[in-house]
Design a protein that fits this description.
alpha/beta; D-Maltodextrin-Binding Protein, domain 2; 10 helices; 12 strands; 44% helix; elongated; Arc Repressor Mutant, subunit A
Length: 299
């Protein structure tokens, strides 16, 4: 349908930042993209984009149009999924983009739970960072993005539907041989001169610096790791201490002690991002993820 195509063009233009980039992504000519946008603007009776030397930017009316376009396109995808099921008996896979810990600690259990009530449902997982996962939802390349952020460094999901799945408490992790490893409560100021192992992913380093800064010192970051299995292995061998979320502490290697940090570090916030309010199988998976996260962080 031509009207749906115009909404897809709007989505690509908003995400890519230019008509040319949108045309390349959609395998269309740049004049065709311009024509589709012009027709949509005539239909709505208002300008949707401003083209400047720094790129293409949505007008306030364009932001409103994009928000509703994303919802319409998600409903259309759901309808196509159901129609495909009726026609062939095979349902299109539910596409999920998620960060590393969610792929290991949340998604397998949530999917297993969902398949008990939806045995024919299929899934397509991709592990990626926060910004990439959100961009995939904006482009219509994934149905659900499971992402995290910290209050000091929130992610940008304007125009999308964001649902808070829960908070993932952050703990201090020390080598067993550390003098404070047998202490019931670890005061963060006592770690002012310690080497730290820090993540470089979305908001991780900023969160560490915020926590230490509130205690009056800047952390001495000795090593970087974006996988908590690596971080824990480095801690076990005495290379430093680290802040690690609860969901990444289910299987501790020998040589690691988890301490109670005071003052406590702000939690890692976990979110589900969709193009519109989640319904059908998308909504069911969001609910299952929230349940698993609640169980994981309560244990």
């Amino acid at each position: 349908m031509e009207s749906m195509q115009r909404l897809r063009v709007l989505r690509e233009v908003a995400s890519r930042g230019s008509f040319t980039a949108a045309a390349n992504a959609m395998q269309m000519s740049q004049p065709s993209v311009s024509q589709q946008m012009a027709m949509l603007e005539r239909e709505l009776g208002t300008r949707l984009v401003d083209r400047t030397t720094t790129g293409t930017h949505l007008t306030p009316a364009g932001e409103v149009a994009l928000r509703h376009a994303l919802r319409i396109l998600q409903v259309a995808d759901e309808a196509r999924r159901e129609i495909d099921t009726l026609g062939s008996g095979a349902q299109s896979p539910l596409r999920v983009a998620a960060f590393s810990t969610a792929c290991t600690a949340l998604l397998p259990t949530a999917v297993a739970s969902l398949r008990r009530t939806h045995p024919s449902i299929d899934f397509d997982f991709e592990e990626c960072d926060v910004d990439d996962a959100v961009a995939r939802v904006q482009l219509g390349d994934t149905d659900i993005a499971v992402v995290f952020d910290y209050a000091a460094h929130p992610f940008d999901a304007r125009g999308l539907c964001v649902q808070h799945l829960g908070d993932d408490a952050v703990e201090i992790v020390l080598p067993d041989a550390h003098p404070l490893s047998r202490t019931a409560v670890v005061p963060i100021e006592a770690l002012a001169h310690e080497p730290w192992i820090s993540g470089t992913g979305f908001g991780c380093r900023e969160s560490l610096r915020t926590v230490c800064g509130a205690a009056g010192f800047a952390p001495r970051i000795a090593l970087n790791s974006n996988r908590y299995t690596t971080t824990l292995a480095l801690v076990a061998e005495g290379h430093g201490c680290a802040l690690v979320p609860t969901t990444a502490l289910r299987q501790l290697p020998p040589g690691v002690t988890v301490g109670l940090l005071r003052p406590s570090a702000p939690p890692r916030r976990i979110w589900a991002v969709t193009s519109a309010s989640p319904t059908g199988s998308v909504g069911d998976l969001v609910d299952a993820l929230a349940t698993v996260l609640r169980d994981r962080t309560r244990d």
